Amino acid sequence: MIAAASRIFLRWLPGMAPLLWVCALLAAEPARAPSLLSDTEPSALETAFSVRAGEPLRQFGYDLFAAGAPEPRTPPGAVQGDYVLNTGDELLVTLRGQKSFSKRFPIDSGGLLLVDEARPVTAAGLTLAALRAELSAAVTAALPNTDTFVSLADVRRIGIVVTGSVSHPGRQEVSAFATVLDALSAAGGVSRTGSLRRIRLIRSNGGGADGGRIVDLYDLHLTGSGDSGGADQRLRDGDRLFVPPLGATVAVAGPVKRPGIYELPPGRPRLPATDLRDLAGGPLRPGAQRAVRFGIGPSGEEVTEEAGDPDAPLFGDGDLLILTPQREDRRNEVRLEGHVHRPGPRALTRTRSLSALVAKADLRPDPYLPFAALATTDPATRARVLRPVDLAAALNGRDDRRLSEGDTLYVLGVEDVDFLTSEPVLALLRGERALPPDACQGLVGLARALAAAPDGLLATGRQARAAAGLTGSRKPCPPLFEAVPDLLTFALERSALLLGGVPRPGFYPRTGRATVAGLARAAGGESEFLDWSAPSTDFPSGPDAVLESSAPHYELVGHVRRPGTRPMNGRTTLREALGEGGALKRDVYPLLGVIERFDRRTLTRSLIPFSPQEIGTGRADRVLADGDRLHLFPAARLRALLRPTPDTGKGDAAKERLDDARMAESEPLDPAITALIAERTVQIRGAVRQPGGYPVADRTPLAALVAAAGGLSSDADPAAVELTGADGARTAVDLGSAKDKARAAGPGDAIRVNPRAQALEARAVAILGSVRRPGSYDVGRGETLSSLIARAGGLTEDAYPAGAVFTRESERRREKEQFTQQARELERALTLEIEKGDPVKAENVALARQLAAQLRGMEPLGRVVVEADPAVLRARPELDPLLESDDRIHIPKRPLSVSVAGEVMHPTAAQFVSGKSAEAYLGEAGGPTRNADSARSFLVLPDGRAQPLSLSPWNHRVNVIPPGAMLVVPRDPKPFDALEMTKSIGGILGQLAITAASIAVISR
């Protein structure tokens, strides 16, 4: 790529002004304007139609501009002979015969094509075929027996004015092959307030006298061809495009392939339902369709009517068409849904009974056997109702009731039943009526049922009163209650509330056949202390049963393998309750747990911290009291609690912090427990894998705290640890010492683990070219260029250190910012020139803007001029540069030539001769052309420096020209002689010339 850039640089210098030389060297497409459209924010029209339709609707066709695809380029040789040439086109001319070369030549501002060895040819206004004949004759006259081949290498830019409802109205520069669609894309696309059907194209040759041609982009969307709609119409310089406001619109909703909002075509104020159905892609389901029109009446009210005749033009501006199938019912089927492997329809002919519909093989793991729900049709009222089913009886064949067409059996899983005791359900039973923003339809149905019967058992019964003292989980609503909203209320109305004696207390739905033992097994297994207050193992017939164990018990809550209630056998200790650590999950937080204890005598609650790690290892223990609740926490949840604000940075660490924050929001702790955790925190900073706050129960060994923080990172220095107490006292700690490792830190303390000093740079440097062992090298801090050359084996015999190219990333960024700033200043100066009102040629303005665009798109090398000769560096160590990460050094081979480029008759690479003058080298290149500005000639030295050349006859200063240097003779900048800002361009061109010389050196 670098070699190609160098060849372009050397090829484009002849016959070009410095500005054109820079543009050719860095040729790139100008940046396209960003698209106006936002796929996330609906327009006002989309919002209005979506509310009326009850589903989100988007305006059709506007996503055509959202992708921001680059403007298409026409490949060389693909242009036909009737293409009319003009200033700005670039031609590839190939000669074969007496003179052979292949070069690119532009058509200059005067319309001339200047080809080496041939007379100037007036190319502007000729077709490509005519120019081929004209240039062939000119070449034959100068070079007999030479064949000429011409093709279009690059096309000119033309100016199009785009106004109206687009993102960036105004003049747009596009390719000469650009179409209407390309020009609209260059302007940022049509906004959603603009029309896609009535875009006007007004020709620059007077073709707009009749109002211009109407362009309809719908044809491109619907048929894939833009010919008939005008989207593929080729533009000419000076054409205008006007995008009027959005016209009359209609919307199509329902089960169609492409629901949306459509603009009516010009001249057709109303469309029939069939045409709108075709615009929407047709219905999703074949068969007869029902079309309903929602129109706006004279007073603004919405009017609904059935569209009986689908071919009648009924739908006009603001109307909404909703298409639905006339029949969506199925015959001879029953359904099995919920916690099963293959939910869906079953043939009624093969599943006439309940036991035939469901078998054990159909059930997923952990089904809830005491209860299921059958949705059927009541023969008396013909209404759909839910009936309870003992799923265990159906599986054993004891419940073999007959099924009817359309019946559906809903099977619940353990997670579905657990949701009955979730916090959102308990909040509604406590009397709260505000639903969470993400409430599922089951919760909405429960809230309505409680509001409809505020004095009923579900709202005021024993279960509702008992629910006031329960704490539920924050589990998401199961999909079954979203699909069947009435099922949640139906299950609660048939539930028993088990408050003790089972691992998972809560609501358990059952049928009349359920027993205490059966529900206990469903609640996590039979308990050894089933001491129920109910006199019988069968439930009372009432629907408001509350069963509670009277035996002493404790409860495990949170991050344990089997949460729930456990019996107390005498003096149960904390270690026994945790099973010596076996009851805990692997990722439990090891340094803090909380015992929640309620004193029935004083009616007070206390929170007692403990260390699960100390309990599990036997170094601590505590006797439990009746009713104690043991809270254990996942480590990620405590990290989320102590870092609640998401990090705005990037990378995996930021993602982990964001996930922790979301966990803290989705599962909030009791405020009192949260306050306890916050006040017992130790801060760990520095070289650990997970720095942050870590709560502790009491004073904790430093080794345990560092382990909780993920351990020491690879760059940590265990001997350089600081322990700062809550009182401000600071102590130096060596974690390698057994004594210091056992040192403890308590709440409010802070630990900092210092990293080791890094001996190596973070990234390597590269040395290439004429060294004995080129490649990438890791370097230490303070390492110099001479030591790197020595590590690379030294220079080879043909090395040329005077032409060394040393590039640095920090310098590259500085140069990039400098070029961007110069581009802004150039555009500002151009704007001031135009605002003065002085006459400025349009082609000069275009060239200046092109230079600004090239400056922005340029990627500099970041070259730094250094001394690379090891002998000189040994004699003068102050010249030896220190290396940084990502430095690159290229030592070229000794060149044998001196390049001559720019405004000379024949750019060449002349043989280097010691002592030869600049005039002699210029003479070998044929001397300056008549357009040369010899007073501004300069010499680019091999090491990247530039110095002026004085070529006047009375100047006797001698310029020493080393091998590998480049003489550049610029052209007199006549195209810009009317612009005052031309004075500031010289410095920019000098920097670009030095960059080009560096590329040329690297490419050799």
UniProtKB/TrEMBL annotation:
Q: Which UniProt keywords apply?
A: Coiled coil, Signal, Sugar transport, Transport
Give the matching Pfam families: Caps_syn_GfcC_C, Poly_export, SLBB
All copies of domain Capsule biosynthesis GfcC-like C-terminal, residue ranges: 910-971
Give all residue intervals belonging to the Polysaccharide export protein N-terminal domain.
79-152
State whether keyword Coiled coil applies: yes
**Segments forming domain Soluble ligand binding:** 162-208, 250-290, 556-589, 682-730, 765-802
One of the entry's Gene Ontology molecular-function terms is:
polysaccharide transmembrane transporter activity
Q: Coiled coil located at which positions?
A: 809-836
Tell me which domain of life the UniProt entry assigns to the organism this sequence originates from.
Bacteria
PANTHER family tied to this protein: POLYSACCHARIDE EXPORT PROTEIN GFCE-RELATED
Q: What is this protein called?
A: Sugar transporter
